[in-house]
């Protein structure tokens, strides 16, 4: 249950890090790419049963 909660939290962070404000459009894929990579790693850990 803890792993799924963490996955949902990382998913929300991924959606929140999409550059929607004019000043954040120059950030590129940095914020969403970092959170997306964390989401993939966490998904892998949950599916293999390590979390």
From TrEMBL:
Membrane-spanning residues: 30-47
Domain of life according to the entry: Bacteria
Keyword line: Membrane, Transmembrane, Transmembrane helix
Record InterPro entries: DUF3309
Name of the protein described by the UniProt record: DUF3309 domain-containing protein
Biological source species: Paraburkholderia silviterrae
């Amino acid at each position: 249950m803890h792993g799924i909660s963490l996955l949902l939290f990382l998913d929300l962070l991924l959606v929140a890090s999409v550059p929607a404000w004019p000043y954040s459009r120059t950030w590129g894929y940095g914020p969403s790419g970092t959170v997306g990579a964390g989401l993939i790693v966490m998904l892998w850990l949950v599916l293999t049963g390590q979390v």
